[in-house]
Every structure is written in structure tokens, then in C-alpha cells.
Amino acid sequence: MTLSGEYEWYMTSSVKDEISRGKQAKDLDLLVDISIKVMDPAPGNVEQIEAKARETGDIGRLSKTDIDILALALEMDGTVLSDDYSVQNVATALGIKFNAGVEKGIKEVFTWRWRCRGCGKFYDEEMPDCPICGSELRSVRKRSKQIL
Question: Which of 57, 85, 98, 127 could form a disulfide with 91 if both were Cys (CB 3.0 to 4.6 A apart)?
């Protein structure tokens, strides 16, 4: 997909901040030249994304910027451009369209849970360590749904 004039392009201020602080700072002028508008999502949409990300178990995998992008796409009925599988997972769970850039994109929706590396107990919520034995938790797929 190329950035062309046939679409309206948006980014959140958190994306702009990341670009201006990172190695891509020189690309910010290019983005302004192709008229990418900066717009932030309404707080209610951010809350909806966070709730769904907690439900799928992706909340710990998403940055504030990821959440903002998803919330803006939800608000505008837009399409997210991202190779991030957690972004794609939450987008799919909410019916938000996405296009993968370099990668192929997800084929199924995952829900995550956490398993203790020591005692093997499963948890539906992420924790710093197992409350039973104190060992580290790792995320594992809970179930999947095939995308049609």
C-alpha cells in the first residue's frame, strides 16, 4: 500500500511524538507534506479499546500509542496500518479493519492467559509473579477463533 491522495490519512499525537523523538524524525516533514492529519481519539473510545484488550489479554502488549491508534480507527471507522499482532488481534476482536505492512497479518484471534513457569497454575490476568510459588508467569494462548 502506498500513501496516496485517494485516502485521508491520520495519526495520533502519540504517533507524532514517537516519530519526532525517534530515528524517523527526519520523516516527519514527509508525513506533513502528504497531509497526514493529527487527531486524537475520544476518551470513551480509548476506554473501549482498553476493555477489549483486557478481555483478549493483549493489554500488556499494547503501548499507549497502539491503544490511541486503535481508538481513533474505531471512532472514525477507519483502517489501521500495523504489523503488530496484538494491534491486529484487538482490531479484529472489535471489527476494526487493518492492513498489515510487511508481515502477512493474523489468521486467527487469540485470547491470552498466563501460566506459572514453576507450579504450572493458569491465571486469566497478568501478574508480576505467581502468588502461589513466586515464579515468573508467561503468556499462553487460551483459545482461538478462525478469521473468515
Answer: 98
